[in-house]
Structures are given as C-alpha cells and as structure tokens.
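cron nightly-structures :: item 1 of 1
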Amino acid sequence: MADSTSEYNFLKDFRIPDYILVPETEVETVSYVPKCPVIVFINSKSGGQLGGDLLVTYRSLLNESQVFDVNQEAPAKSLNRIYVNLEKLKANEDELAFKIQESLRIIVAGGDGTAGWLLGVVSDLKLSQPPPIATVPLGTGNNLPFSFGWGKKNPGTDHQSVKSFLEKVKEAKEMKIDSWHILMRMKAPKEGPCDPIAPLELPHSLHAFHRVSETDSLNMEGYDTFRGGFWNYFSMGMDAQVSYAFHTERKLHPEKFKNQLVNQSTYARLGCTQGWFAASLFHPTSKSIAQMAKISVMKKAGGHWEELKLSNSIRSIVCLNLPSFSGGFNPWGTPNARRRSDRGLTAPFVDDGLIEVVGFRDAWHGLVLLAPRGHGTRLAQAHRIRFEFHKGAAEHTYMRIDGEPWKQPLPDDDDTVVVEISHLGQVKMLAAHDCKSKSYEDPSSPPAHEVEEPDSNEEEEGEEWKKFGAAETFRIPDEVDISHLS
C-alpha cells in the first residue's frame, strides 16, 4: 500500500487531466498542479519489440490520452488538437491550462528520424511557448539522445526504468539548438509525378514543391525544388553509401533487424564489404567529392560566398550540428588554441548559427575517431553551404540527413544539381546530466571536463524559408512504413 501511494505521488507530477488533452471533455476540478506535465510520442515499431513494450508501460503509468503512438496518429495532428484546446481553455480563464502550457515537456521515443520528425512539427507550429523535447534512444545510431545525455543504448521498458527516465526529464535543463534548412534543386522529369521523382527515393523529411520565391536564385523554370530540415547532420559520400546499403537491406529483410546489436554489426559488415578500407582501389580520386561538386561556404550571416577547396583524397563530407555522429563519435573534436588562432575555428557549439564541415579520406581515416581526441579533416565552419554538381565524375552519389539516406542521381547533360544548407532558427531540447553538447550562451555547460587536442602537423584540408514542413510538407505519408525510420 505504501509503495502504491509513493508511486501515485511521484507520477502525479507528470500526469495531465483528460479535459486538457481531449476537446469537449467536461472540465475537472483539480487539486494538484503537475510540476512536469509531459506528452509522450512513441514509435511502436522502433527498436524491434521495445517500442511497443514502452508504449504499454507509459500508458499504464500515465494518462493514456497523453501517450501517443506515431503509427496511429501523426504528431502534428495530435499537438495541434491539444494546443487548440489549451487556447480555448485559456480563453475561459482556466488556470490549469496556463500552468500546463508553461511547464509542458515532450518525450519522443524512437530513432533519430522519429525525433527529427517531432522537432520539425514543433518548429512549424510556431508556438509562443514551444515545449522542450527529451529523446528516448530506440534507434540504431541514437545521435540525438546521446548528444543531450539520454544515452545511446536502447532503454529498459519496465516500470522502474520508465520512472527513472521521467525523473531525469523533470531534472533536465533546457538547451536551444540550431535548426538547418536544406534546399535541393534538380531538373524536372519530362514525365511522371513531382513527388517523388521516380526512381529517386528521397528521405521523408524532403518534399517537393514546384516553385520557390521569384527572388531566390534557385527559382528556375523546368526544375523541381525540394526542401526539408535537419538538426544533426547532412553527409555525402562514404558514410551515406554504407547507410543506404543498410536501409536497403533492412527494407528487404526487416525480420533480420530486431535489435540494436544486430543492426550495428550489419552496419560494420557493410562498411567492410564496400571497399572503403581500400578506397584508392575501389573508389578512385577521379570520383572524389572535389571532382563531383563545387562547394561554397558563407561563414557568417550576411557574408559573401567563398569557394571551399577540397583535396582529391576526400571521399566523404559531413556537415555537423551536434557533437555526435555514427553512434556517438565527434568528428570535429575540440580545436586547440593554435588552430583557433590560426584558422578562426571554435568548439562545436550547438546554438552559434554555425555548422561544422568535416571530411574523411576512407574508412581507415574514420577509425581515427576511436582514438582519444581523434577527429576528421576540419574544412570549415559556416552559416550556409552550397554544393553544385555538374556532369562529369559520376552518375550518382549518396546523401544522408539525420540517419535517412538516399541515392542521388547526378547530371548527365549540362544540367546542375544544387544542394544548399542554411541556418533557420532554433528549437529547444532537454539536456540531461551527461549532456555532450555545448551552448554558446553557456560555455561552461557540459562537458566541463573536455580536453583540447594536442598540436599535430596534420594538414587540414520567400515561402520555402517559412516552414521546415513538419506540420504540412514534413509529414510522413500514410503509406510509409515508419519502422524504416532510423
């Protein structure tokens, strides 16, 4: 009896009454105001059976109306309904509605793709008080949860594990992170639909629209333009090709990908079999990124474009917003005082309006991340970056945003494919005690124990801007199997 009373007293800080969540429900008289009200979104198909188990546990501990399965209803629809109801209650001077909105927090359980989906939804709703988000690691890489101290191993799904996570959510601090907008322009097909362009399988976070604003340089007749958003990384080349092979195999044989360990071992096997450990033989420099694309960067807002020269040995490039890539590695590291002075480099703050651009030569180069203070080839820090692909080196390349890869056709005539990434606003995350991310606003934030690298002699190499699309164009189509989100 004492245990059940103790559990009730603990959980009442997180529970939200039905009338707050469900429109047209009779208003209740509530004697206790929850200190940390939460809305929970779970991808029940993530993590093998874990997502479904977690859904059952959360619904048994909290009000079922505050726990959503993203496979049953899109988060945009759920959140829009809740916030419309909150506004109606506030208009009627409902005091609890004001307090719930002030202290509301969101929990999302799934892979990085599911977490990015929720971040996009919250961005597009343009709320006056957007709720901060905590992420439960149910995917393969789990870069978002790891970056903010929530771990990268799939969690326990029992009552005690969930209660421990809720306690961490209550104690977590808010941290803003930069949002990045991506635009891609390519020649429109002569036949067929605009979205998607067959046989191109773009990630679900990129969606086609036919025209951009007339003042935008990407506005050209006869071209299709895609837009989307990301919060962790955009990558191209070696790592994206391995990821694409993994996702392709998982779609063909979903029954083989039931737990995190199997997924990670499959990833490692694909990396070995695709020739990236003998890149000079299997991936010649004639098809390097420098041969495929002209890259330009704008280092600060309102600045000018500068061409970024790459060595022919660079076969993979990563534009990184958070200090976690490929399951917890930090490709940028922490530049020492000499490099900061000589090249104007900084630590990778997640809210400074800059994205870190890192290159890798081959898989052996990637393994340097396993070493203490190991890092890739730091290329630039930029407020905007543009890739222009022309006919020449290759018929296609591989790209990836926040764990979602695709095979990108390159021009076979005088056409140009353009990918442009720009800073666009911020969202709020919840940072736990072991947070790896650092805030520009609070440089003393974790990790306070971070150590600079030693010196080395290594040679360092209109309308579309208004939305990320989460509420409308960032949607996950009904026919898409969400279990394939990372």
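cron nightly-structures :: done
The radius of gyration is 23 Å.
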